[in-house]
Amino acid sequence: MYSIHELAVLSGVSKRTLRYYHELNLLLPEQVTDKGYRVYTTKQVDQLQQILFYKQFGFSLEQIKQLLVEEEENKNKMLEQQYRRLKAEKEHLDTLLQTLSKTIEYQKGEIFMTDQEKFLGLKAQRLQDYEMHYETESRERYGDQLVDQTKEKFSRLTLEAYQTSEAIENQLILYLQQASLTDKEKQEVVALHAKWLTQSAPFYTTEYHRQLAELYRLDDRFQSYYDQKAGDGAAKRLSSIIKEILI
């Protein structure tokens, strides 16, 4: 048996944090005495070890709470997703470090650096942003195969193709910053957005385009992408335009 003080000393987790975990129903004491003292056993020690393990690998407390009660199959799926994310982050960080190192040497005149090499770090950062904010939702909605194919296609983009994609998006942002658009301009917005999607997506269909429009309307993470670039409400305007044109 452990008091809250003893468990805090044993685990290195503060008493305040243990109380907070209790409030969240994340780590329940074996019992609470009549005087309000929390009592823990080896069972809670094991649970706390799991919580700290999951925290170490980037899971939120809400995700950890779900993991602790999930069936083994679902738990493994969540762990595999997190493993892929962390592995991708490591690969992207390695690429960024290599690009930075070469850039320093290039700036000093010590080596020659191709435009393609300069471009690798930018692609790595874009992929990492996607994985951190959008990948989980995309996999749930479209499946692993489509997401993997999309990432593979993007990673193979040439410098010219990447610059084309950036130019298309910049045109799109200019339209979305306008308060109102003509019917012709709305058609141009949808055409630009479709062209931008095909730069990385392995295929394009109007149904896929409409589904993405729904995410711009309903999902805060997808909304923030265009709202940050073109102002508040830009993502919902884009969603409405796509649905209006692709009836």
Automatic annotation (TrEMBL):
Residues 61-103 form a coiled coil. It comes from the Bacteria. InterPro entries: DNA-bd_dom_put_sf (IPR009061), MerR-type_HTH_dom (IPR000551), MerR_fam (IPR047057), TipA-like_antibiotic-bd (IPR036244), TipAS_dom (IPR012925). PROSITE patterns: HTH_MERR_2. Residues 1-70 form the HTH merR-type domain. GO terms for molecular function: DNA binding; DNA-binding transcription factor activity. Keywords: Activator, Coiled coil, DNA-binding, Transcription, Transcription regulation. This is HTH merR-type domain-containing protein. It comes from Enterococcus sulfureus ATCC 49903.
